[in-house]
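This part of the workshop introduces the protein records we will be handling. Each record describes a single protein and holds just a pair of labelled lines. Instead of coordinates, the fold is spelled out as a row of discrete tokens. To make this concrete, we reproduce a full record directly below:
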Amino acid sequence: MPPKVSVVVRTKDRPYFLRRALADIARQRLDDLEIIVVNDGDCSMVDVALSDSGVSAAVIEPPGRGGRCAAANAGIRAAAGEYVVLHDDDDLWHPDFLAKTAAVLDASPEDAGVMVATEIVYERQDGDGWTETGRAPFWEGMTGVTFTSLLEVNRAVPISFLYRRSLHDDVGFYDETLDAVEDWEFYLRVAARYPIAFLGGTPLAYWTQRPDAKGAAGNSMFELASEHDRDDLEVRDRELRRWVGANGPGLPLYIARLHRDAEHRLMARFDALGEEIVRGVHESHPIWRRIRRLARRHR
């Protein structure tokens, strides 16, 4: 029988994080799973981490060492589970993550996947390891996932999303032309066609961040900041061109004019507000009152 869940772990030259990720998966309260480690770096580091962890996992390498998207796609193509999730090597789960998210999808066949409340975990280096320094909610107050909300900005991270493996047969795989935002672009394709469930309450996924880390230990959010901005714009521009090709430029031209007019009105309001503040200071401050009195005397 195929497993219920396939966990795809992307890793590259980070044995400490890989060992931690494997231990994290081993603590899950759902046993019906397979682990696929997609190695985009030094093979010896992965062998050592697997040996140390004692966890059974299949190890594959993406063709041509193609980076994050190619690694995700290679792992998913090898997945046999009904459900799949990307567990990047530095992120973590609550022990109930797989059990609770799989139960949601089992009970809701109309939902393409389920996202969960997520916490950001900040870390700093402590010798050969990393120590937690604080936590913050990721999208505090979030109660659901909609296509409309995803159009504005990504509201999920891979560690927080369990979804049906069959989705890739319908909407395709991760876009390997992108160096970043590949998860957001995939979510847009999914949410445009299918509902996505949301499991709120206690955070079940932990997105770790190390703002000061560089090199192999760095976060893509910080290490690839310029790529995120570039690819975000590329996705939006590409989809706008596609829409214009089918419908013409009329609506985008009109929206662009509305945006320009609103920006001009806002700047004019800021200028007027600045002048009002300066005038209020001049009229109320005792030094300026004295200067005005002296000026009147010498007229």
